Amino acid sequence: MSDSLKTFETSDGGQFPSIGLGTWKIPDEVLPTLIPEAVSIGYRHFDCACDYGNEVAVGQGIKNAIDSGSCSRDDLWITSKLWNTYHHPDHVRLACEKTLSDLGLDELDLYLIHFPVTLAYVPIEERYPPGWFFDPEAENPAMKHESIPVSDTWGAMEGLVDSGLVKRIGICNFTTSGIRDLKSYARIQPSVLQVEMHPYLTQQNLLRYCKGENIAVTAFSPFGASSYVPLNMAGESESLFDDGEMKAIAIEKDKSIGQVALRWAIQRGTVPIPKTQTAGHLKENFDVYNFELTEDEMSRIDALNRNRRFNDPAEFGEAAFNTFYPIFD
Question: For the chain, N or C: smaller number of CB within 10 Å?
Answer without folding.
Answer: C
